[in-house]
Amino acid sequence: MIDADPEAGKQGNRLVRYLLVSAGFLCVGLGVLGVFVPLLPTTPFLLLAAACFIRSSGRFYRWLVTNRWVGDYVRNYMEHRATTMTTKVSSISMLWCCIGLAAVFFTESWIVRSLLLVIAVGVTAHLTSLKTIGRGVVPGTAHERGAEKGLGLDVKEVERQAAMPQDERVKTTEAP
Prior knowledge:
The protein is mainly α. The protein is globular and about 50 Å long. 64% of the residues lie in helices and 3% in strands. The chain has a domain of 80 residues.
């Protein structure tokens, strides 16, 4: 995980910190709204919020990346460019349903319909290009590689490693 600087928020211009914190919360709000509004992107707003918070407030950054609703999503994307299969399937399904409805019922313009199609194809391509995280697997650990090879998975060990800072997680090397 990209750890927040413990000194963040204690140095620099107070006005800049205030503006960054405000922008961060605005981005969190827009990101959450993007969950329900298909053409409003969730991920870029949450990543922008993380960037604002990491430069202004370690506390708010930790709040975002440990948040029970979006924390895993933000951390997995920032650290591994990865997401779960459930997130991929639900995002792509919702995207195509909403864009399809908008194209059929809310516009008669072929230019707008074509633009909606291009957006849907682009977002789908991006989502499918992300790595897929298996259930209960911590990306970048020995357990992730073991799960990829079909080896047993100790869920308690995965949970223990998930609670550790990334640089302390057990890494294995491939056997010759």
